[in-house]
Description:
The chain contains 19 helices and 25 strands. It is of the alpha/beta class. The protein has 3 domains: 3-251, Glutamine Phosphoribosylpyrophosphate, subunit 1, domain 1; 254-447, Glucose-6-phosphate isomerase like protein, domain 1 (Rossmann fold, 3-Layer(aba) Sandwich), CATH 3.40.50; 459-605, 3-Layer(aba) Sandwich (Rossmann fold), CATH 3.40.50. Strand 12 (219-224) and strand 13 form a beta hairpin. Helix 3 packs across helix 4. The mean pLDDT is 94. The site of 5-amino-5-deoxy-1-O-phosphono-D-mannitol has 15 residues, from helix 9.
Amino acid sequence: MCGIVGYVGQQKAASIIVEALRRLEYRGYDSAGVAVLQDGGIAFAKKAGRVEVMAKVAAQRHFTGTTGIGHTRWATHGGVTDANAHPHISSDGKFALIHNGVIENYSQIKKFLLTKGYTFLSETDTEVLCNLVAYHYAKEIADNNGHNRLLESVRKALRHVEGTYGIAVLCVDFPGEMVAARKASPLILGVGDGEYLLASDASALISRTRNVVYLKDGELVHVTTANFSIITLDQADVSPVVDRITWSIADAELNGYGTFMEKEIFEQPQALENTMRGRFAEDGSTAQFGGLNLSAAEFRQVDRLAFCACGTAWHACLVAEHLIERFARLPVEVDYASEFRYRNSPLDRRTLFFVMSQSGETIDTLGALREAKRTGYRVLAINNVVGSSIAREADGGIYQHVGPEIGVASTKAFTSQLLLGAMVALYLGRLRDMSFNDGVQYVEALKGVPDLVRQILKGAPHIQAVAKRYAKATDFLFLGRLSLFPIALEGALKLKEISYIHAEGYPAAEIKHGPIALITDKCPSVFLVPKGEIFNKIVSSMQEIKARKGPVIAIATEGSELPPGLADEVIRIPDCHEAVLPIVASIPVQLLSYYIALERGCDVDKPRNLAKSVTVE
Ligand code: M6R
């Protein structure tokens, strides 16, 4: 949710931090702030609004300090105000702290601190934590136990905290030092040339270094200008592992596109190629995955699958359910991760558990993974961000390899998840009763997806013209059946999140059970219309809408003959294998939402109230 940055080095920290915050802004964008240690004190600037608003204020203050922290906020506790923006400063003026997460027991701690004379300027849980560190620091001086006092006071404060956090802390008595810690909020230490950077994700630090240490839950890092060390909350030493980021700064830049969402839609052919690369068996009849840590014999023992995810990734799981049941004949259950955690769902002993998450940091999905592991299940993850919490905690998994996804609305990560779901269905199908020939055809179809997507993307101007005609609608329905029902859900979600138009997704035949009441000439329906056995049924649903004067937009496969005059708009997609149809149908749905949002003047990369990675429950 929020984005965190820290810098310890020889350069002026503020400008490096502001630049990093610009790259992190997709994580939260309602306020921002920066603080540096200089002249024996803390100099800071923080403002409600986008990073640019705060950057202007910071530029006027001519910060010179070489140790600093910065934050971009997605509000949890307290409204969007300058006072609630981070960094927070302790009331004794000694500490500056930034935080991503939620301190659940903040009100008890606040009461206690008030009795000790600490005062508060904001409504946030973060300011409480900052003062708790100050309180322990004051005690630590008295105890004088020989440890680094900054590190010790942060560690002791965190032992009293319930909830989640990624934090970074500065203290005026320790120029050139910073302490950071995490529990369920991502934190990465970048090891640069004579400098260290801290960030919630790699995009913030990749311009300065590709060498990173992924901090784990319950770890604290103490950074100085000369080195860093990691300990646990229980004071055990940790040997750091330095990893190398494989993607480059160019992958996190616009490269000539107007928005990240547009870029990510148009780079899908390449992204899908990257997802597939090296993942087909030599005989060309099945998929293969390197990191599942499960043998074919173990997969044969599985007689049920469970999937958990949130949002768009949950839609991808619904498609996987359809394809696995259809091609591998294994029952699949899909749950919202947030529901699964608290639902006490009975899982069979031979159930294989999957979680799907682009970021690998979604707290609900991480919670579901932990709950499943706690009850003894083996959990596999489909995930994009290398080194994420979910990737590290899963028993095995498949990386999506689509590079950083920065637009808040997921696009390339979604189609890559659809592709991997289709590949898992193939793999399981070939372990059961899918024939060699059917496997070969399936593989050929998957290999052809990038070209099909390229073909659809060429039709973007037509979709943009359609979008212009419907951009003023206040309600939309998205309707599809079977494997395209989740794409209808995804279409509705995409449109809602970036254009703020009310939209609902339904199985097409369900409209007569209620949603048809919404139909007027002002409520367009987007139908996903594949050729095949349900074609006539979908046409009947379209007739029902048309009879009530509802505008009809058909996304239909080539060769399907729609009755003349039934659809007001037709967007064609290539006829293709069932396993790739959901991917192919997703592209016009993404483009339609994108162009409608653009037409309405919305900020598609940073839609209101949203953040890219949801790390609070
Ligand atoms: O990173 P994750 O895949 O776990 O994220 C899950 C959802 O928060 C995410 O898909 C969200 O729904 C997107 N904004 C959809 O575009």
